[in-house]
């Protein structure tokens, strides 16, 4: 049920015919070849099964009931009317739900107590023989809530703000080098500005959804998740099962953007419901329910202080970030972390503070930290360039550090300067000799009623690698089955892993099958942190190389009748890597226009130039970069989750009110990448590309809007409200 | 919930008479959203998609009679030349999928002040043909709307068609949304020039309890240099101001009242200039 269906490719070997010939070497490398996604045909024809599409005999359906207060307790749940409804099999609430063993994430301790920590928290689940009956039953559950005064608004002067021990991804909350105040005092040009980014929701196409069933004491789950290994381990912990008794399958996942990076309440509830009714249960959250239950990007308030000498060299960088978390668990967006390595400066200070509010729990969303952080830092750099009358590209190049400016360790590779130079020339910012031809003056370029401007921002994202395992098998008919518990969330993961496998085996790609998306394959890391290709690809490479070696060494280059199999684990290799600062970098350029009559803001053109190691598949890579930049543009101009402070409810709780960019909003997006060779990463030489595209886009747009109009927007999204009345 | 599926117009009228609380459904692009969001739970739905005559349109003298079930997509494809203003508005509705399903009759039936078809129907003096077992009546679009999502339809009545003159001059439509597609109008404006009669028709959307006409702006027609002359900026500006002044907007999640008035003034002047250019070059 988890084997990947593949469209016929040319030169397929005949199946089932054992051969005595030696394994044939590849005539050409697969890595670097542009090719479409293996599962594209299945997806566009509707054949690819998502979490609740799997046919399971006798399935029941679950529907959640959510709290209507932001803080309080559930006094009583009256299930009698719901249970009397035709088709309703059972109702779960904290009074009858089975006890769970804590695994450290209070968000997953569903229906374990009467406490309500945010509006929209699940307080009951109705299970019925059809989705309609479950929904009708959910309407009949009477939940008596005792609501208390709630605190739902993030403020920079909130008295409960505190500095956490760590921020997301394990970075220290605070980092100080030298004396920022002294550096600022000595500076000839200074910027001190505060930037705000709103709450945002991921809005993946497939909602959070689960099919769960129990079979002879084992739990089997189809879950729309970016991390089926983590989900299976978590479920084993919550239900006190041996790890091998839980299997989580995520063959196809309809997007995630971080919201499916870890287990969410839906998977726990589905498993509880399946146990309650003794049947398989399908639970798909609705779009509206997702806004409370599936996480979101925290709003941020960020103060950036920069000071530069008369020659444009930074003397001080200060970046103080404030964000929110829920009363249930602490998630701290690492917004200021990128300011620790983007630019050189002798005096540096980055801080993070957070406040726990009566709100849903924020979570990873595409480039957590770097995305909102880059809006603040890269806008501030642009403000410094304006204040000092420096070219913004030149200013960034002049502050390029030789080594990581805080850790004093070398970069494994860093080509930010080359990205800026290449992008500037392609964009027409500089001429062929590198001379700046862009007029720096704001608000002077008119095109009819429009004011036109250009802006630039830098991008970065860490190049992470985590241990994973993979399995490679050769059969006597010269076919190679490679399995790794990757999650393909629409990125092309299985497609590039097959390419990597073919090269590591040194066989033509048509001989290689790839299987992903099943925790039973063996542990592998999350499709998150832009580390999938590096982490899974390393395990695949290791397994495949060992397999080919074994065939050559032990079997004379011929696959024996019984086949050969190798399992590989990269834990030790990753632990023993030398110390480097590993990041991808990029530069984004934007041309924007603002109507002097209506204040509307349009983006004409975006260009991104990235240095992200070796590109495995130009087709899927281009889509990742363009997708990231499109999401960045969407965040720059449209996306904003509005929370009603009186109710703690996201009032923009559907796609008619929460606006993401549509095709008509998206201009010409050009993407280029440098041929970056980095021997210090992994055997494939790859860095992650899933998130860097969203980093810096909003700043590039805001900087272009400033260049067009002279209006500096420090509060996303950029809309006509900030333009109207200020245009001339 | 009962689901009624008449196959002829007479059956539909009989069903509506028998079930006055049944909600008519055509493309379902409004009704299904309300059902799905649980904003509405009518005792019965009256599916009109089997009534073939509703999907017909034909010339009726110098007017067109367009069945209530004609989709936006067909308005664009089949009537774009004769009803350019309505076709422009139809192009701004939702996505291709929505335009394949949604109908102008449904738009009228919902009677939302933000309905995209309403301003061009107002600007061209269209009429709504309403049927019931009691008979047929026609109502001017300007008199059809009674308030937000309220119209003159009696509980036993259904919209059969709308009657609209084929364009006799340039028509324009402009809509402000917070993104470039798939968006409910912050405000919209339609304009129809009739050079023979020397009149201007107007329609304002999403800036009042009902779609509105800008009658004082229309009266400027008497001052226009119809004999192929350039339009003075002062008239363009005055026209825009009168359009803005005719609006009765409120502040809501999509935009402020002040912005709507401002934007309508811009759209009014702009569409007049566009239409005038076309008139002058015709």
TrEMBL record, chain A:
InterPro entries: Ald_Oxase/Xan_DH_a/b, Ald_Oxase/Xan_DH_a/b_sf, Ald_Oxase/xanthine_DH-like, AldOxase/xan_DH_MoCoBD1, AldOxase/xan_DH_MoCoBD2, AldOxase/xan_DH_Mopterin-bd_sf. Residues 45-149 form the Aldehyde oxidase/xanthine dehydrogenase a/b hammerhead domain. It holds the Pfam family MoCoBD_1. The keyword Phosphoprotein does not apply. SMART domains: Ald_Xan_dh_C. Keywords: Molybdenum, Oxidoreductase. Residues 1-21 have a biased composition (Low complexity). It comes from the Bacteria. GO terms for molecular function: iron ion binding; oxidoreductase activity. Residues 1-37 are annotated as: Disordered. PANTHER family: ALDEHYDE OXIDASE 1-RELATED, XANTHINE DEHYDROGENASE. This is Xanthine dehydrogenase.
From TrEMBL, chain B:
Residues 1-169 form the FAD-binding PCMH-type domain. The keyword Flavoprotein applies. GO terms for molecular function: FAD binding; oxidoreductase activity. Pfam families: CO_deh_flav_C, FAD_binding_5. SMART domains: CO_deh_flav_C (SM01092). It comes from Dactylosporangium siamense. This is Carbon-monoxide dehydrogenase medium subunit. Gene3D superfamilies: 3.30.465.10, CO dehydrogenase flavoprotein, C-terminal domain (3.30.390.50), Uridine Diphospho-n-acetylenolpyruvylglucosamine Reductase, domain 2 (3.30.43.10). PROSITE patterns: FAD_PCMH (PS51387). Keywords: FAD, Flavoprotein, Oxidoreductase. It comes from the Bacteria. InterPro entries: CO_DH_flav_C, CO_DH_flav_C_dom_sf, Diverse_Substr_Oxidored, FAD-bd_PCMH, FAD-bd_PCMH-like_sf, FAD-bd_PCMH_sub1, FAD-bd_PCMH_sub2, Mopterin_DH_FAD-bd.
